[in-house]
Amino acid sequence: MSALFESFTLRDVTIPNRVWMPPMCQYSAAPEGPSTGAPHDWHFAHYAARATGGTGLIVVEATAVSPEGRISPYDLGLWNDAQTEAFRRITRFLREQGTVPAIQLAHGGRKASTDRPWKGGGPVGPDAYGWAPLAPSALAFDARHPVPTELGVDDIQDLVGRFADAARRALAAGFEVVEIHGAHGYLINEFLSPHSNHRTDAYGGSYENRTRFPLEVVDAVREVWPDDKPLFFRISATDWLDDGWTADDTVRFAADLQTHGVDLLDVSTGGNAAGVRIPTGPGYQVPFAARVKAETSLPVAAVGLITDAEQAEKILVNGEADAVLLGRELLRNPSFARLAARELGGEVRVPEQYHRSI
Ligand SMILES: Cc1cc2nc3c(=O)[nH]c(=O)nc-3n(C[C@H](O)[C@H](O)[C@H](O)COP(=O)(O)O)c2cc1C
């Protein structure tokens, strides 16, 4: 029996296997103009293919809780009824396939208002549907980015409410898991890290102050997200900087997150500073997940250059993580889970329409 194809239950949600898809922005909510933030044909086809491929859980890409929270003008959002309704088609299909639908709720902070990666990914202004980005401190991400507007305390409270509203909409849209995006140098990561948070009020300075906004978001989301459904948090376990958030901070914070009702930590790294050299290689972020797993009781998922079945199986068998997320590999091969099950002797649901391909 393969560990990768054992089910996993969090609260009352049972995920059929441990091969999961991490959030991956498609920047495709409106290819030729300002975005409505609603998913379209592209999103349906993209997520449907990974569901028919046997993926146990799919985390829908970073979805903004407010218009200024979009990373690009082409991102998905979840702040109005039309968006909520449009997601239902995706969640319905994923459930029909036995895949658990999850969604990452996000705010881009000082890295918002940029172009699509294939158009260079640089900051865009109002002439290209952009806006002035917001952040904990008036510190630009790099020389290319504008200096963001520092959030006032009222703005921070407003954003906490927006995360809760988006979670309420995620429930109405049929999602079974919400993931809060606390990684990759976006708003919540910006608050956590002393590199990007230079505030002198209750939201900056000490560990307790830098984690205040992220934990307020967790509390507000947990309040509206049903008790029988799991809440994930994605973290950059390290900024890979001397003056940044560290792996020690992550272990401490993981325990705090669990106390506040988070059910799983999705462990990534980096993204909060430009020009940082990250020592990438197969499974390069797994040790960060493994450390949280060893030193806390919070379940974890590992991500980052996990690309083959045996490698993924080993991570679970070694007790380094409870699940693996495969990003670019699932872009290359939507049926990764089905082929991995064949290789490892695991069982995965195959749509009846495809039975002749087993
Ligand atoms: C096209 C693309 C879009 C991404 N968008 C997001 C995102 O919306 N939210 C997020 O937390 N990470 C995002 N990521 C990071 C992935 O979730 C994942 O952590 C990363 O690609 C490393 O895993 P991999 O080596 O399996 O691809 C994105 C990655 C790619 C390739």
Percent range for β-strand residues? 15-25%
Give me the count of strands.
13
Q: Tell me the major beta sheet.
A: 8 strands, parallel, barrel
User: Low-confidence segments, ≥5 residues, pLDDT <50?
Assistant: none
**Could you tell me which ligands this complex binds, including any ions or cofactors?**
flavin mononucleotide
Work out the radius of gyration. Answer: 19 Å
Helix content: 25-40%
* Oligomer kind: single chain
What is the string of SSEs from the N terminus onward?
A: EEEHEEHEEEHEHHHEHEHEHEHH
Secondary-structure-based class equals alpha/beta
**Which strand order do you get reading across the main beta sheet?**
3-4-6-9-10-11-12-13
What is the 3D form? Answer: globular
Mean pLDDT: 97
